[in-house]
Amino acid sequence: MNILVIGAGGREHALAWQCAKDNNVQQVCVAPGNAGTALEHKCKNVVLESGTSDADHSPIIEFCQNNAIDMVIVGPEAPLVTGIIDACRDAGIQAWGPTAYCAQLEGSKTFAKEFMAANNIPTAAYQGFTDAESAKAYVNEQGAPIVIKADGLAAGKGVIVAETVEQANEAIDDMLADNKFGDAGSRVVIEQFLQGEEASFICMIDGDNILPMATSQDHKRAFEGDTGPNTGGMGAYSPAPVVTQDVHDRVMAQVIQPVVNAMKAAGHPYTGFLYAGLMIDDAGNPFVIEFNCRLGDPETQPILMRLKSSIVDLVTQGLAGQLPNQAEWDTRSSLGIVVASRGYPESSSKGDDITGLPAISTDYTESVKVFYAGAAIDPNDAQSVITDGGRVLCVTALANNIIGAQQKALAVTAAISFDGAHYRRDIGHHAIARDHA
Question: Which parts of the chain are coiled coil (predicted)?
Answer without folding.
Answer: none
